[in-house]
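DM from R.C. (forwarded with permission)

"hey, sorry to bug you on a friday — could you get me a structure for this? deadline for the figure draft is monday and I only need the backbone to look sensible"
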Amino acid sequence: MHVIDIGMATTPMVYFATRLMDTGAGIAVTGSHNPPAHNGFKIVLDGASLYGEGITALRDAMRLPIESATATSAWRAR
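My reply, with the result:
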């Protein structure tokens, strides 16, 4: 897995970077002038926002028990 750090960027820049770099996915860690409960992540998969049922399915999958995995290679930031 490769992690590409595009630095501090607006949400549209994250969408653009996922297309430009052909990553297929991107995650923006958000901060807001609103209360902390409104902060979080914005996820883009194949050029579209992940929301609603997609977020619910991701949350449910993350709650499932997982087996230990053996990494075939280390991740690195590009």
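R.C.: lifesaver. The chain has two helices and five strands.
me: no worries. The beta strands are 2-3, 25-30, 40-45, 48-49, 76-77.
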